[in-house]
Amino acid sequence: MAQILAPTSQWQMKVTKSSATASPMTAKMWGSLVLKQNKKGPTRSSTKFRVLATKSEGYTINRLEGLLNLDLTPFTDKIIAEYIWIGGSGIDVRSKSRTISKPVEDPSELPKWNYDGSSTGQAPGEDSEVILYPQAIFKDPFRGGNNILVICDAYTPQGEPIPTNKRARAAEIFKNKKVIDEVPWYGIEQEYTLLQTDVKWPLGWPVGGYPGPQGPYYCGAGADKSFGRDISDAHYKACLYAGINISGTNGEVMPGQWEYQVGPSVGIEAADHIWASRYILERITEQAGVVLTLDPKPIEGDWNGAGCHTNYSTKSMREDGGFEVIKKAILNLSLRHGEHISAYGEGNERRLTGKHETASINTFSWGVANRGCSIRVGRETEKQGKGYLEDRRPASNMDPYIVTSLLAETTLLWEPTLEAEALAAQKLALNV
Q1: What is the pLDDT of residues 160-213, one digit of tens each?
Q2: Cα–Cα distance list, 252 to 58, 67, 289, 302 (Å)
Q3: Given this model, what pLDDT does residue 19 score?
Q4: Which fold would CATH assign to domain 177-429?
């Protein structure tokens, strides 16, 4: 639920050691994620996430903290690279670490690597090797220093993309000259839900029960309205430190649910940044002892689902006369509604019901400032006669490589027949 208007420069955040000591934890505090800061002394490029834990009856601080927070830069040029890839479900993130001899600035400087695909559901046991190709680099907010997170895609030893590698196809679309010339911008609104560890029930909800009806929770403040703010804030800062183009965050309509926005970003970068941000969120919730879910309808009933609304524009849409270009793009999207829906996330039919700020999954619609439509156009875009559109159909568990590239393909590369175009235009005219 955010408007993203223009790309901004990448932000980096430098956080230093803290001289403060932590208080012992109580037995009910399973874990806490604290970003250590210190205003004294020189700024350093290392960020420290403190992990607190209990030990026997004395509730002492975990002695591993000192080792976890070691700053290696004065002692070695070697760095740790965390290779991250998408697992067999198409939504799970996997990772493993390796030592690199010196700091790097570009993925081309990194070696390819491999993993056991039979253990991730991506290869048979008798031929299990899958090759990782480094594609994007981010600063590591957990290890700090020169250490990095590396977004990879996966290939067979023969160099063919494996079925769950959706990045390879997206890269082909974004390398098309017609797409490049239109400089596609994306602003992606990632919604997610936080669950209690043992019962898998939303954070802040009474176990086996329900909170008060929706209304006070969206962008709310207070112990009875906001659940998980520390996780949202820690994630926000970690993404800024990593170099992810995160542009905002807010509490969502359902209690225990949050949203952050990434973008505007150009082309495939938008999807790389979403995957990196998801990985960081998984790691933060892991340390906080909370479960993250991207299920599009985590709680059945009169509760909002979780989406991944995708704001999209091209150069022609952003220039004078762009509203007509937007209408032509919407027409194309209407003609490929079924194809988009099938690629917009598992379980989306439970979310797109025509209720709770969604359109029906079976019907394509668009409107100005209407959050109950498939495609929403903002009032400012209508007023200025140029701008962007918001595709409200993608589910929270969508693959951003698929959604971003499919939007570009449908609106820039795909041409409908004249008959289909005329029929669709007639139907859409009834929606406005």
Answers
A1: 999 999 999 999 999 999 999 999 999 999 999 999 998 999 999 999 899 999
A2: 39, 37, 21, 15
A3: 38
A4: Creatine Kinase; Chain A, domain 2 (3.30.590)
For residue 93, give every residue at least 6 positions away whose Cβ sits within 8 Å of its Cβ, in sequence order, or none.
84, 85, 86, 87, 275, 278, 279, 282
| pTM for the whole structure | 0.85
Where the chain has pLDDT below 50, the residues are 1, 3-5, 8-47, 49, 51-60
Q: Which CATH class is domain 79-163?
A: alpha beta
8 Å CB contact between 151 and 136: yes
SS (H, E, C) the chain: CCCCCCCCCCCCCCCCCCCCCCCCCCCCCCCCEEECCCCCCCCCCCCCEEECCCCHHHCCCCCHHHHHCCCCCCCCCCEEEEEEEECCCCCCEEEEEEEECCCCCCHHHCCCEEEEHHHCCCCCHHHCEEEEEEEEEEECCCCCCCCEEEEEEEECCCCCECCCCCHHHHHHHHCCHHHHHHCCEEEEEEEEEEEECCCCCECCCCCCCCCCCCCCCCCCCCCCCCCCHHHHHHHHHHHHHHCCCEEEEEECCCCCEEEEEEEEEECCHHHHHHHHHHHHHHHHHHHHCEEEECCCCCCCCCCCCCECCEEEECHHHHCCCHHHHHHHHHHHHHHCHHHHHHCCCCCHHHCCECCCCCCECCCCCEEECCCCCCEEECHHHHHHCCCCEEECCCECCCCHHHHHHHHHHHHHHCCCCHHHHHHHHHHHHCCC
Closest by Cα among 267, 266, 268, 272 to 243: 272
Q: Supply the pLDDT for residue 68.
A: 86
Round the average pLDDT of the chain to a whole number and report it: 87
- Confidence at residue 429, expressed as pLDDT on a 0 to 100 scale: 64
Please say whether the beta carbons of 267 and 278 come within 8 A: no
317's tokens: 């849409």
Name residues whose C-beta falls within 8 Å of residue 214's C-beta, 6 or more positions apart in sequence.
253, 254, 255, 302, 303, 304
Angle between helices 167-174 and 400-408 (to 10 degrees): 30
The domain segmentation of the chain, as residue ranges, is: 79-163, 177-429
